[in-house]
Task: structure prediction
Amino acid sequence: MHYRVFYYFARSQEVISSASAVEMSARAIRERLVPRLQSEDDYLGILDAEDQVLQILREPGGERYWVEIPLDAAKASYGRHMSLGELNELLAALPGRFEQDQIPGLSYRPW
Result:
């Protein structure tokens, strides 16, 4: 299955906006983009077919990732911390639609 991705990688100053998102497979995202999340300023956004976003950020210290489904209208998100192993498992079985009940352990957080 293919998704559209947008991202910012601080070290290389590489940016693709959500308006210019590019198509990639879940495997390519896992193998080529996740390793580039190296600083707390980096982010990776994945858009499903309904334009729902799954956003991935590297936590300060670099041992965990914050994975969330933002809810702009509510100024909140459903998210959770994940290890690299958990993140890779999620991306290996990425659902076709990003909904909070499809990703175990997400909790609601206002911004």
Notes: The longest strand covers residues 2-9. Residues 26 and 93 are 8 Å apart (CA to CA).
